[in-house]
């Protein structure tokens, strides 16, 4: 999907899968990208946040009303991520905008 020019979307801990993607040159796909998705104070969230940051990602999240409302969404090139289940519809809407900007819709 990355090589084909597609848009990758992930919500919540779903970005953990994106964190393990490598490009053809061996670099981490998330390196230098803005992400929103690992938003929690539990051990699992902390583990994945550390893993993503070690691969070069910049994580944005807030444990407040924005997180609960689904407003915590990050767009970084062809990667759209959101923090928590409430962000799913916002991620879908933003991915549509990205696809339109790329001329794929």
Describe the structure in your own words.
The chain is α/β, with parallel strands linked by helices. The strands form two sheets. The protein has a three-stranded mixed β-sheet, with helices on one face. The protein has helices at 15-19, 43-54, 65-69, 88-101; strands spanning 8-11, 34-35, 58-59, 73-76, 79-82. It starts with 7 loop residues before the first strand and ends with a helix. A hairpin with a 2-residue loop joins strand 4 (73-76) and strand 5. The chain is built from four helices and five strands; from the N terminus they run βαβαβαββα. It has a single domain, classed as Rossmann fold, CATH 3.40.50.880.
Whole-number average pLDDT? 85
Overall outline: flat
| Secondary-structure element order, N to C | EHEHEHEEH
Strand order across the biggest sheet? 1-5-4
CATH class: Alpha Beta
Largest sheet: 3 strands, mixed
> What is the number of independent domains?
1
Name the helicity range: 25-40%
- Count of alpha and pi helical runs: 4
- Whole-Å distance between the termini? 16 Å
Q: Regarding quaternary structure, how should these chains be classified?
A: single chain
Unreliable parts: none
What is the CATH H-level superfamily? Class I glutamine amidotransferase (GATase) domain
CATH architecture: 3-Layer(aba) Sandwich
Q: What structural category characterises the helix and strand content?
A: alpha/beta
User: In angstroms, what is the radius of gyration?
Assistant: 13 Å
Q: Assess the beta-strand content as a share of residues.
A: 15-25%
Count of individual beta strands: 5
CATH topology: Rossmann fold
InterPro entries: Class_I_gatase-like (IPR029062)
Protein name: DJ-1/PfpI domain-containing protein
